[in-house]
Amino acid sequence: MLAGETVLVTGASSGIGWECAQVLADLGVRLLLVARRQERLENLAQELQTNYKIPCLPQALDVRDRLGVQAWFQNLPPEWQCIDVVINNAGLSRGLDKLYEGDIDDWEEMIDTNLKGLLYITRTVLPGMIHRGRGHVVNIGSIAGLAAYPGGNVYCATKAAVRILGDALKQDLLGTPVRVTTINPGLVATEFSPVRFHGDMERAQQVYQGLTPLTGRDVAETVAFCLTRPPHVNIQELTLLPTDQANALLVHRRE
Hints:
The protein is of the alpha/beta class. Helices cover 42% and strands 14% of the residues. The protein has one domain: Rossmann fold. It has helices spanning 15-25, 38-52, 66-74, 104-132, 153-172, 192-196, 201-206, 216-227, and strands at 6-10, 30-35, 56-60, 85-88, 136-140, 179-185, 237-240. Strands 3-2-1-4-5-6-7 form a 7-stranded parallel β-sheet, sandwiched between helices. Strand 2 (30-35), helix 2 (38-52) and strand 3 (56-60) form a beta-alpha-beta unit. The longest helix has 29 residues, at 104-132. The radius of gyration is 18 Å and the shape is globular. It starts with 5 loop residues before the first strand and ends in a 15-residue tail after the last strand. It holds the Pfam family adh_short. This is Short chain dehydrogenase/reductase family oxidoreductase.
């Protein structure tokens, strides 16, 4: 159902974004891959073009840069400007400090990436979807947006905003064929925790100790499922948890 469609994946250089590219390449899409790490994107694009014989365009982009996002889109080759699907995956968390002890630079990085970056990308590509009468916006949220947890403060707030934006966007798009999906994963073993703890791998590994987390591929396959429903079906919100997790606070760890 997706063969030949142009799919934009943000944060495609690792984790869920990387796996979305892999899963969707197998469905025959054209992939527009963006992230900050150009070399990783180029390696991914080369791999996908070799293995799946699909067109890929890797381009370095920082979604936090509003003017940069606008210039990036304006300078896309014409054959890449008709974007059918956008997967707003770029995002991160920083630290687990109490709010009154938090690093404001970390706050701004999370807000600028998780929230403003998603808005910049969506605002840029959505008018074309509406004009062409087709499209799908997929936002990668988090169970952190469903309920706060200790130390999650600003990160949880950004993901709660992503969830509400998805709901609001669906209302704005009512009467058009454009679909909106928010996917809220629980614990996923990616670079998320090393990034949160600024490269402290020992602390990052403790997050998943004694349990079996989701993988990036698990989330990517869920994204593909949502994208391949019939046009009259819109999976508006979906929560995806490891079996060892009940919510943001409650997990089962085996000794």
